[in-house]
Every structure is written in structure tokens, then in C-alpha cells.
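Protein HflK
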Amino acid sequence: MPWNDNTGGGSNGPWGSGGRKNDNNPWGRGPGGNRGRGPAGEPDLEDLIRQLQDRLKGLFGGGKGGKGGKGGGLVGLIVIGVALLAVIVASVYQIGPGEAGVVTRFGDYSRTTGSGLRFKLPYPIETVEIVDVEQIRTVTIGETPAEGLMVTRDENIVDLSFTVQWQVDPANVQAFVFNVRDPASMVQTVAESAMREVVGTSDLQPIIGAGRGEVADRADQIMQETFDLYASGIRIVGLQLQEAAPPGDVIAAFQDVISAEQDAERNALEATAYANQIVPEARGTAVGLLEEARGYRDQVIAVSQGQADRFDAIYEEYRQAPDVTRRRMFLETMERVLGRSELIILDQQGEGNGAVPYLPLDQLGRNRGARTTAQGSGQGG
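Predicted C-alpha cells:
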């Protein structure tokens, strides 16, 4: 009959075998056949949940059998305690003095923590990277010729050696962690580039002479601006030029130039010292000459004024008594003239006896000259 199953026997109804050997019906297997499987052999979700519940009950003592339940419950508590301890250990971390911790959550930046005992979610939810923000690191450039030889603006070559001290910026630790992969190499590259820029815009003499400090300051500034531009979290502490000299092949010629400059500077100092000595002396001499000239001027003015006053007095007397004044002036003049003359008296009584008087004129002239000189000395004194 059409309702019978060819494989089954007995009283079969239209919905399947009455003996339930195959447990088949027109809609698929019944609940008794292939238990826990869904269509096409997929696991039954309800069965899986039920099995999980049964296992948990057995683990914590919820199953049948008193002793087995108590032992399973103790083991479960131990497992839970160990798990909680592992979670706590994975969540607690220590940040030492001078350090900072950068916490990431699933790889993204979450927060920056300071020193002390700190907490985070366990791995792999949150991780922490500890960075020393107080350590001062040092990079030296110029130990090899490829690093130290640089070209100046005046087309000379200088051999430089310098050190750069840097540290992580405490206010920007996350940028250092995320943006810098090899900090030492980065600092060295930026330092060399900045120094080449400064040297390329400077002459040789200031670099190896008095301008070394300015060169270091300019390179320091360029480095810090570069690190800030790329958000590196690096702060420059200092840059010191260890050595700045011409290459070894031409250093002798440069030493001669330096010696000549030192000689020129010494000569300039000696000239300045001589000028400081001679100028005050010249000024003193000039002041003495000026005072002497002023004294002579005052003397000449006084003499002239006296002569003018005397002439005015004589003129006043002459105006009042011309004859008397003229006679007095004549007599005074004759007195002055005759007072300086040699007086010779000749006796005329022997006239006519044929004798000619002899006058030693040369001797008389010498006597008169000596007397005149003596009188002049007396008047000058």
C-alpha cells in the first residue's frame, strides 16, 4: 500500500511505522532519532546549551552524588580563585620615578600614567609601555670622516665633532611611543642635517674661531624645530661642539693664518696701549702751551696798556704846557743817551805845541760794550 514503508513491517499508519523502528514521518526524523542534530546534521543549539548547563552543575556540585559534587565544587572554587589572581596580576603595574606609562586599548592610545601603582584591563585588552622621561641620552656625531667633514659658505672644508644630549618630552610621551621607531638613529640623522645647514650658511673662520657658540645654538634650534614639526616627543637638552678644525691636509696653512691674526691682534693691542700713553702726554703739553700763550698774551696786553696810559699822560701834560713838556722830554732823552755814552775830556791848553792827542778807540769801544752789557743785565734782573 502507498503508506507502507518498504523497509518496515507490521501495522504502519499513514505517518510512519507503528513499531517506530525507523521513527520516520513525512516531515523528517522525530525527536527520538539522531538526537541533538538539526537539519543537514547541524548541532542543535538547545541541546548544546543543555549539555553546558549539565557540565557546570557537575563542576560546582549540582549533579547527583554527594561526594562527587563536593569535590567538584572545591575544584571550581580553586579554578575561579586562580583565574581572578591571574587577572589581578595582569591588571596591576608599577611606574617608577622619572618614568611614564603609555596605555593602549586594542592598539589605540588610551592614556598616559605617572609614577606609582597603576591598574589596567588585562592583556590583550590593554597594554602598557613604560618610558624613562628623565634619562638624558647622548649621541656623538663626527667620529668618522663621512659625518664630520662639511662644506662652508666660503667653499672651505671643516672637520666637526659634536655631541647632542636629548630626552623624552614628559608632556608628549605618547608621540614618542607611536611616532618614533629608532630614536637614536633619528636624533643622529636630524643633528647631522641641522649642522650641515648651519655650516653651509657660515664662513670657516667664525666656525673654528669665536663663532662656535653661535653655530651650536643655531643647530640646536633647527633640531628642536624639526622634532616638533614631526611630533616626535623628543626634547633637545644641549649641543656641544667638541672639535672644529680644518682637515689635516691643510691644517698647517690654517695655523699660519691663525698665528698671523694673533700677531695682528697683539700689534693692535700694543698700538692701543701706546696711544693711551702718548695721548695724555700730548694733551698735557698742549695745555701747558696754551697756558703759556695766555700768559704771554696777558703780559703783552699789560705792557701795551701801560705804554698807552703813559702816552696819554704825557699827551695831557703836553697839552697843558707844551714848551715845558718838550724841554723835559728833550732833557730826559739826552740823559738816557748820554748816560750810556763814554765821556772823554780833552785838554786844549797844549794847542799849538804840535802834539796830536792819541785816543785808544778800540779799547774804549770794548769798555763801552762791556758796560752796556752789564747795565742791560742789571735792568733785566
